[in-house]
Amino acid sequence: MKEGQRLWNREETILAVNLYCKIPFGQMHSRNKEVIELALLINRTPSSVARKLGNFASLDPKLKERGITGLSNISKLDKEVWHEYMQNWDTEFFEGEKLLAQMKNITVVQQNQVNLDDLPLMEGRERERLVKVRVNQSIFRKIVLSNFNNMCCITGIQMPELLVASHITPWSKDKRNQLNPKNGLSLNALHDKAFDNFLITISEDLKIKISSSFYKHKDVPSIKENFINYDGRQIIAPIKFDPGVAFLKYHNDRFES
Question: pTM to 2 decimals?
Answer without folding.
Answer: 0.82
